[in-house]
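Example for tutorial group B:
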């Protein structure tokens, strides 16, 4: 088992099951040397939500290596693809099982499963859907490996898109965006992700859910302005309408007339 050093659940499972586990960055022959030291040999390699791109020193050890990627490749190669799909307003996402190479998510496609992104879906609920699909999909791919019956389709490189690693600092809301993008931005990054955020003065506000409002405003009012607070829920002006902050974390009391900004 190879995993990153922060996946406590995987590490704990390996300990319970007495499975050998490499933790950390596998590059620069680190994992390869560990495999040799542990006298580990294998025919098949399966990668699911692994943080690192495996290099040839690992891939060449397997007869068949398959990665399970959380997008409909060749779209959304890279990190947290389902989050980017929600941010970009996509109506569907999915899982692609594909042969692995030393390049990022570019191997031939073995199978794809399409998943609808519903109106209330978040980054967290899409992960739950994925987790419900992975076991049967893995079993199916392993069976195909064992009987030597894997057929593939090449990815169309002209349609490939790439998205990079996100950090907590990337969650800042631009209140000059339209309300639809802000809503997608927020729901893509809800718990367990760090969350979309802004500031009132120097105090940070983390926002977990918003909804649209028909509350009125004057067009010259700055975007991010708190138009009203109704039942403890601030209504905030955006470029093309108002939104209600339905669920948020903030240490103080939000008042009408304050302005949310990302600093």
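The residue assignment follows.
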């Amino acid at each position: 088992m190879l995993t990153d050093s922060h996946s406590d659940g995987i590490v704990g499972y390996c300990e319970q099951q007495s499975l050998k586990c490499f933790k950390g960055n596998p590059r620069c022959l680190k994992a390869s040397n560990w495999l040799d030291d542990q006298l580990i040999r294998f025919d098949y390699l399966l990668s699911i939500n692994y943080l690192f791109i495996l290099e040839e020193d690992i891939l060449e050890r397997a007869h068949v290596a398959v990665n399970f990627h959380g997008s409909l490749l060749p779209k959304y190669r890279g990190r947290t693809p389902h989050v980017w799909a929600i941010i970009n307003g996509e109506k569907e996402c999915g899982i692609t099982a594909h042969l692995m190479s030393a390049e990022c998510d570019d191997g031939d496609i073995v199978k794809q499963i399409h998943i609808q992104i519903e109106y209330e879906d978040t980054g967290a609920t899409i992960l739950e859907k994925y987790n419900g699909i992975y076991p049967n999909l893995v079993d199916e791919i392993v069976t195909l490996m064992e009987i030597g019956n894997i057929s593939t389709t090449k990815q169309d490189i002209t349609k490939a898109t790439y998205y990079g690693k996100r950090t907590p600092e990337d969650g800042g809301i631009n209140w000059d965006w339209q309300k639809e993008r802000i809503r997608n931005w927020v729901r893509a990054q809800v718990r367990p992700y760090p969350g979309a955020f802004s500031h009132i003065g120097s105090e940070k506000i983390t926002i977990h859910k918003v909804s649209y409002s028909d509350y009125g405003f004057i067009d010259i009012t700055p975007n991010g302005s708190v138009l009203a607070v109704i039942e403890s829920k601030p209504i905030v002006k955006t470029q093309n309408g108002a939104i209600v902050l339905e669920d948020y974390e903030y240490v103080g009391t939000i008042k009408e007339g304050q302005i949310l900004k990302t600093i």
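The CA atoms of residues 20 and 112 lie 31 Å apart. Compare this with the pattern of hydrophobic and polar residues in the output above.
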